[in-house]
Amino acid sequence: MLGQGEALKHLQPRFSMLFYAILSGFILMGLRLVKLQLIDGPKYRAFSQRNSLRKDKLPGPRGQIFDRDSKIIVDNRLQLDVVITPQFVIDPKSTIDTVAKIANLDSEKLYQTYQKDSKGSPRFESLPLIPNASRSIVAQIESSRDLLAGVNIKPILQRTYLQHEIGAQVFG
After folding, report:
1. Could you report how far apart the first and last alpha carbons of the chain are, in Å?
2. For the chain, which ranges sit under pLDDT 70?
3. Which residues pair with 153 in a beta bridge?
4. What angle do CA 127, 98, 123 make, to 5 degrees?
5. For 78-115, what is each residue's pLDDT tens digit?
6. Which contiguous run of DSSP H or E holds residue 58?
């Protein structure tokens, strides 16, 4: 045990260098933490609020129903709905005005419908603007996608009963 002080004495400068290296590492991490939290924090908060997943239910297509003579009784028809997702719309009034102008509809009525539907529903949920839109309206909206952030076309398979009300409850 004698002589250990002498052995550690020449290592003293190395301990102080190690101490200052560790201290400078903690100071650098602290400065980085301050930059991320205080300086860049609002930017990252806004980014996280815009970043989300959208949950859509995609129902499977239902089959056709034939009678004994191989005539179709029940079929599926493609219906295209123009929908709006409030989360992705910056200015709903101007977006709905643009959609109304494309579809030749009353923008006030469309906006009131939007306000009524959006009240109480989650912002990420798509709301129908124009149900069963014509192909020409769908084409014009698709061509104006850069002006209409948050407006999409949602395809829906609509059940069609070729015999009208006869047997609709039975066939489903």
Report:
1. 94
2. 1-3, 5, 7, 52, 54-56, 168, 172
3. 82
4. 25
5. 899 999 988 888 888 888 898 888 888 888 888 888 88
6. none
Q: b/e string for 24-33 if b means 16 or more Cβ within 10 A?
A: eeeeeeeeee
Q: How far is CA 37 from CA 24, 26, 49, 70, 146, in A?
A: 20, 16, 16, 69, 34
pLDDT of the residue at 3: 59
Q: How many CB atoms lie within 10 A of CB 81?
A: 19
Interatomic CA distance for residues 25 and 10, integer angstroms: 25
The CA distance from 74 to 90, in Å, is 42
**Per-residue model confidence (pLDDT) at position 19:** 92
Q: Are 157 and 79 in contact (CB under 8 A)?
A: yes
State the sign of the Cα–Cα–Cα–Cα dihedral 60, 135, 148, 117.
Answer: negative
